[in-house]
UniProtKB/TrEMBL annotation:
PANTHER family to which the protein is assigned, alphabetical: GAMMA-GLUTAMYLPUTRESCINE SYNTHETASE, GS CATALYTIC DOMAIN-CONTAINING PROTEIN
Start and end residues of each GS catalytic domain: 144-478
Entry keyword set: ATP-binding, Ligase, Magnesium, Nitrogen fixation, Nucleotide-binding
The protein's name: Glutamine synthetase
UniProt entry tagged with the keyword GTP-binding: no
Swiss-Prot/TrEMBL cofactor(s): Mg(2+)
Domain (GS beta-grasp) ranges: 40-137
Originating organism: Sinorhizobium terangae
Length: 478
């Protein structure tokens, strides 16, 4: 049996060959199945992972030999994978939350523009993100990628195109196989666990130089572009900023980045976690979303008038965020743990305020020129499914423009102290999601029913667990 050539060797071969079409030099994506066959062949790819995000953003799908993938094979999954909780359980049916009585097949439809290698695999392996359609090719409304596509299409019908730039925070933590023990920071290259208060510290980043090198290396191999990487306030808390672009492409990137960062961390014997609040007393992890809207025909930023002043659409977008984001918070803060992050005095917004260059507000307007005017939504947590968080944020702004909603005056003072002006827990957030008819028009009633049913199921599973707080304060006192 001949020895297998590494992906790196294949890449070198590709770069030296002048006979290979230019499109096949790309590290990410092809346009046609013919190009896909050639792309896989010249890289010596043996296996391919056909993946798609479930409601939690977990990759689901099938792995197969390349020969099967390129032979027009029909790829199917059971529809039930979009109705189970993060712990793998299936909630009871309600009037709104129902299972397909036959658990019919849904089909994986590869999006060839997402084709890339899997750089951490020892055998030459590729991956492709798939859309979901029905067994007859019909639209499936409740899958995360389709939910986001629906929102983007609402903008397109108005002649607009949303532009986003996510920022994802995460923690590196020491490996821990016992969930009863609190997480702790890992040891860096100095041999000591890094402490908090390292915001923007280069030394903090340097503690994990080799791991970060692998993140960059893995990302480059997949055609993923990192804008900047910084150390955040928490111990071993990092943030990756992505370049602005199309919402679906950026959601795909966040989906793959999460997987990439976890794999790079495992290679170095530590965990990477995107939990919203992994450590008590430390800052939580957010997924801030910068967003603007441009006219498709002209490229003009819809948030700016010709003279450079803020437009009425800019203010209505903010008004839509203020009115609807609390009603969609379950899509941006999807777990019980998410609401532990949204607490006063912990560097997270607890309000619906907006302001110019004010990081204590939920909706911050960064300093920029008129062409780059944008709105930063600081409420989503990093545990959110990126497709659903982007869909929710953009959907709220869209409704604001369509309904002509007006915002409150901008906030100039500190806004993240005192009372919490948001749903305080998951069940309250889910009820608000179900209560707004306009949201059903944007996301479809079917999606909201399934999502709400799964979230309530997760809450009931959480309620079965007795916490250390209960044992500490109730065991001998009540």
């Amino acid at each position: 049996m001949p020895s297998k050539r590494s992906v790196a060797q294949q890449a070198a071969k590709i770069s030296k060959s002048s006979k290979i079409p230019a499109a096949l030099h790309s590290s990410r994506g092809v346009k046609t199945w013919k190009e896909a066959v050639d792309w896989l062949k010249i890289r010596g790819i043996e296996d391919i992972e056909c993946i798609t995000p479930d409601l939690a953003g977990v990759p689901r799908g099938k792995m197969m030999p390349t020969s099967k993938f390129t032979s027009n094979t029909s790829l199917a999954l059971p529809s039930a994978i979009y109705r189970h909780t993060i712990s793998g359980e299936y909630p009871d049916e309600t009037d709104q939350f129902r299972y397909d009585s036959r658990d019919s097949d849904i089909k994986l439809l590869p999006d060839l523009s997402t084709l890339s290698i899997v750089p951490w695999e020892t055998d030459p392996t590729a991956q492709v993100i798939c859309d979901i359609v029905g067994s007859q090719g019909e639209q499936i409304n409740y899958t995360p990628r389709n939910v986001l596509k629906r929102v983007v299409d609402l903008y397109r019908q108005k002649g607009w195109k949303p532009v986003v730039a996510p920022e994802i925070e995460f923690y590196l933590v020491a490996q821990n196989d016992d969930p009863d023990y609190p997480l702790r920071p890992p040891k860096g290259r100095s041999g000591r666990s890094i402490l908090g208060g390292q915001g923007y510290s280069i030394a903090g980043i340097n503690e994990f130089d080799e791991l970060i090198d692998d993140i960059y290396h893995f990302s480059e191999k997949q055609g993923l572009e990192i804008d900047t990487l910084i150390h955040e306030e928490g111990p071993a808390q990092l943030e990756i900023n992505l370049r602005h672009g199309d919402p679906i492409e950026l959601a795909d990137q966040v989906f793959l980045f999460k997987r990439t960062i976890r794999e790079a961390a495992l290679k170095h014997g530590i965990y990477a976690t995107f939990m919203a609040k992994p450590m008590q007393g430390q800052p939580g992890s957010a997924m801030h979303i910068h967003q603007s809207v441009v006219e498709i025909n002209t490229g003009r930023n819809l948030f700016s008038n010709v003279d450079g002043s803020p437009s009425k659409e800019f203010f209505s977008f903010i008004g839509g965020m203020q009115h609807y984001v609390p009603r969609t918070l379950a899509m941006m803060a999807p777990y019980v743990n998410s609401y532990r992050r949204l607490t006063p005095d912990m560097s997270a917004p607890v309000n619906t305020a907006w302001g110019y260059d004010n990081r204590t507000t939920a909706f911050r307007i960064p300093v920029s020129d008129a062409a780059a005017r944008r709105i930063e939504n600081r409420l989503p947590s990093s545990d959110a499914n990126p497709y659903l968080a982007l869909a929710a944020s953009l959907g709220c702004g869209y409704l604001g423009i369509i309904e002509g909603l007006q915002p409150t005056p901008p906030t100039e003072d500190t806004a993240n102290e005192g009372e919490i002006d948001l749903p305080r827990g998951l069940l309250e957030a889910v009820s608000l999601l179900e209560s707004a008819p306009s949201l059903a028009d944007v996301f479809t009633p079917e999606f909201i029913a399934i999502y709400a049913g799964v979230k309530r199921g997760e809450f009931e599973t959480f309620m079965q667990v007795i916490s250390p707080w209960e044992r500490e304060f109730l065991l001998l006192n009540v």
